[in-house]
Write a structure and sequence with these properties.
single chain; 329 residues; TIM Barrel; 2 domains; eight-stranded parallel beta barrel; two-stranded antiparallel ribbon; 11 strands; 17% strand; globular
């Protein structure tokens, strides 16, 4: 089992990637939500200059945010800069699209994008938007074609699994491990949220809540966006949170829902932080290192090959150090 980390990229993330390398993490993933975070390509390029061994991953990329050639050029540039350490995960988009007021993409469009990206990276001429396009960079500008970069597909349903099995080198899951749906793929990654408790520490300690509160809030955001009123109202404090959200006009509501996504709970999220401890304990990875290590082993038994922890809160280095204790020694 490989242990990796995922970052909500900020100006501090390149230094945190260097810390993660020193702690032995396999890969550092950076999210792609331009309404909230620093650009993942810029962040990983800065991280590549500070490291030499840790894998670098952009994910989950949202195809609608960038023209196919823009992504191909970015992949080839960073693959060259990082000496082949780059990986890419692609999906239909959650916060990356919903923060802009749009729903997730259709899987058929994602599949076409992945197929086109693979073609461009191989040096092929690709039909895109009714025109022939090809990477024509001279030597010394980006990695020479073919560019070999593993591509994960972020999937959580039958259509996504089909795309992953057809086009992916691996599959990226969050938060449910669907390893059996893509059992022939060599790489199956699971994103995990939470915090490692100190001995004797309660999940309600100020430190622990600081670490996971934004991650807890995201559960409610996802429930509302994907399941509607019934889904979020079934959660502790959910109906109060929803009423606050729905008091905001529809044209601005998507901005309010995702404000502070995975970084810090916003004003409306405070009821979630107060009432949702049981949700956090049931759905997040919040426990002592020994018990979390048992969960890591259980995920490995289910077929997961990479566990990707996202550190949260105000002390990212502490979270990285604590998560590193879960690695097999």
């Amino acid at each position: 089992m490989e242990i990796s980390v995922a970052f909500t990229p900020s100006n501090d993330t390149p230094s945190h990637i260097a810390v993660a390398e020193g702690l032995g993490f396999r890969r550092a993933w950076c999210y792609d939500s331009p309404a909230y975070y620093v650009d993942p390509w810029v962040t990983l390029a800065r991280g590549a200059d500070r490291t030499s061994t840790i894998g670098l991953g952009v994910g989950v990329l949202v195809p609608s945010l960038r023209h196919l050639m823009v992504t191909a050029g970015a992949v080839a540039s960073l693959a060259d800069l990082s000496n082949g350490r780059l990986s890419v995960a692609i999906g239909t988009g959650f916060s990356g699209r919903m923060a802009l007021g749009h729903r997730a993409m259709k899987w058929a469009d994602v599949e076409a994008y992945v197929e086109g990206l693979r073609g461009l990276l191989c040096g092929d001429v690709v039909d895109w938007e009714g025109r022939k396009i090809q990477m024509q960079h001279p030597q010394g500008f980006v990695a020479s074609r073919p560019v070999s970069v593993p591509i994960w597909i972020a999937a959580d349903g039958p259509k996504g699994f089909a795309v992953a099995n057809k086009w992916g080198d691996g599959a990226f899951f969050a938060p449910t491990p669907h390893a059996k749906a893509v059992e022939d793929l060599p790489m199956k990654s699971l994103l995990a949220f939470g915090t490692v408790l100190d001995d004797g520490e309660s999940p309600t300690s100020a430190r622990a809540v600081d670490a996971y509160s934004a991650q807890l809030a995201a559960i409610y955001h996802i429930a509302y966006e994907r399941g509607g009123v019934a889904a979020v109202d079934s959660l502790p404090g959910g109906s109060e949170w929803r009423r606050a959200i729905e008091s905001i006009g529809p044209e601005y509501r998507h901005l309010a829902i995702h404000e502070g996504h995975l970084v810090a709970p916003n004003e409306r999220d405070q009821v979630i932080v107060r009432e949702g401890v049981s949700v956090a304990e049931n759905l997040l990875w919040i426990d002592t290192a020994d018990r979390l290590r048992e969960r890591v082993e259980a995920m490995e038994d289910e077929g997961i090959t990479e566990l990707v922890f996202q550190p949260g809160g105000s002390d990212i280095v502490r979270e990285l150090e604590a998560f590193s204790s879960l690695m097999t020694r």
